[in-house]
Please model this.
Amino acid sequence: MVEQAINSQTRQDKRRKVLFILASVFLIMGATAFIYHQGWGQFEESTDDAYVNGHMIELHAQVPGTVTVINADDTQLVHEGDPLLELDATDANVHLQQAEASYRVAAADINRQCLEIISDTAATLQKQAQLQAAQGDLARRLPLAHSPSMADEELAHARDAVRIAADALKTTQEQAAAAQARVVSCDPKHQPSLQQARASYVAAYLSLERTRIAAPVSGMVARRHVQVGQQVAPGDSLMSIIPLNSLWVDANLKEGQLTHVRIGQHAKVISDLYGSQVVYPAVVEGVAAGSGSAFSLLPPQNAVGNWIKVVQRVAVRLRLDKSVLQQYPLRMGLSVQVIIDTHDRHGSLQGVSAQPAEADSTTTVYARQLNRAEKAADRLQLAQAHRG
Model:
């Protein structure tokens, strides 16, 4: 009996010890969870409904033509200004030659008219001198009009000479005025017909430039639609370019998770591609203006009899750190996990004003094309001026 009592007491002691250990463990876990929630947990919003997104830049034809060369294909990396496609430039070259010939004809016509103005000006000066001479001759004869030494016929001839010189001067002045009216200015920069011919030449040169289609931005080629020999028209989609250095993350948070989310808050992004070993620093850049269902092709009609409340999700855009993104590249559509630190709750949820375009949101390819066209027109104008 004594031995049984001892064994029973031993089992009860072990049971109490196990229960005490379990209670201590649960108490520690609860305390740890409480401390974590108070210190960090309540300031974090996380979701795994998040995906990498980016710009998909569609490359379109600007002029009609037949594709003769394709220099880039899907999955290849291109840089801004790289030649991607070439169209048959036969028609564009012909139009450029026609525009150049039209400019030369207009310039030659202006030069001829300017020479006529110079000639008419010289003739006007000559007629003025002849009139002055005739008037002087008549003035010398008038005092002798009634003397025996001056015949009436000679005086009449002097008057006729003055009248003829005056009529000739008037005719020359009218011709000079008509020539001046046809030419606004002999300066090519202020001559409308030459400006029109120059604009036509620039337009033809641009059409030739646009037969060589260049990459507007740097990125990876995707969804190439065009093939060699295909006839394309302005506006036809040729291929897409995705700038991999300008990706962002769209985290779809539930309505209740947006309470303390503010623009400018810091976040951590973990990609399924690299796992938890790579953490992308991110910043909340903005919150969508509506839920995903509001922008769907067929928005839900909630004003119906059989209505069931569904918690909506709103996309929160996160800007990724470009240095880490360059070291560990991502692709559009990849799944990621997002953890937003909401300690700083002084920011706005309404959004920020639009900012000037950054370097990766602009392109100079088309400005360079226009610059080359303008320089070619300047060379043509200079050559024509030397020839004239």
